[in-house]
Specification:
The chain is mainly alpha-helical and 200 residues long. It has 2 domains: 3-91, RNA polymerase sigma factor, region 2, helix turn helix motif (Rna Polymerase Sigma Factor, Chain: A), CATH 1.10.1740.10; 122-199, Orthogonal Bundle (Arc Repressor Mutant, subunit A), CATH 1.10.10. Helix content is 80%, strand content 0%. It has helices at 3-6, 10-21, 27-44, 53-66, 77-121, 123-138, 142-153, 158-165, 169-199. Residues 1-7 have low confidence and may be disordered.
Length: 200
């Protein structure tokens, strides 16, 4: 809880909120200062990797201001703010999961398409791409190889992998997303190197 918040009574904060509800925008600064540190501290503990607590808190205060008329004076404003921030965090997590799924679907489509094109153009090209992918997999740390095998060889969902490895589903999901990007970039580099060697 901030020092500023300590120096303000609940009554004074409610009075500032009442003035904001009455249309005095300037008083919202008082409300933000009173709750910012406390809200940020709580939200930072909930944010998965890659999600900025400051951004969630900023959006929470914006949304709270837009819906300030819905807040009932005398109730717990901090709890109301936390509920808003958690909903925003949940929406961001869902958006990232959807993006990761789309990325995965696109990657699979792209690999299949490239393998098909390579096979049509050169019988050995498909084998070469497969070897590139195998080499890239070998370059990963053992834990990363294990996670990738569980996800794509065994077809386990992220939650099942997290349970097996005693890790959070969020951390596994983030690692799978990064692994796909690492492997895609690695295969692309090897293709470029192979093409350069042929041209030289």
């Amino acid at each position: 809880m901030s020092r500023f918040r300590d120096n303000m009574s609940e009554l004074a904060i409610d009075e500032a909120i009442r003035r904001v509800q009455a249309g005095n925008v300037e008083d919202y600064r008082t409300v933000v200062v009173a709750f910012h540190l406390r809200l940020r501290t709580g939200i930072a503990a909930l944010c998965p990797p890659g999600v900025e607590a400051d951004e969630i808190v900023h959006l929470a205060f914006l949304q709270a201001y837009r819906h300030i008329d819905e807040y009932r004076l005398g109730t717990n404003f901090h709890a109301w703010l936390v509920a808003i921030a958690r909903n925003l965090l949940r929406a961001e997590y869902t958006r990232r999961q959807r993006r990761a799924a789309n990325e995965h679907n696109y990657l699979e489509h792209l690999l299949v398409q490239r393998l098909g094109q390579a096979a049509a153009n050169d019988d050995g090209a498909a084998d070469l791409l497969a070897r590139f992918l195998a080499d890239c997999l070998k370059s990963l740390k053992l834990e990363a190889q294990t996670i990738f095998a569980l996800r794509y060889r065994d077809g386990l969902q992220v939650k099942a992998i997290a349970n097996r490895l005693a890790r959070s589903a969020t951390s596994v999901s983030v690692q799978v997303f990064r692994l796909r990007k690492l492997l895609r970039d690695c295969v692309t580099r090897k293709q470029a190197q192979a093409a350069a060697n042929l041209d030289s």
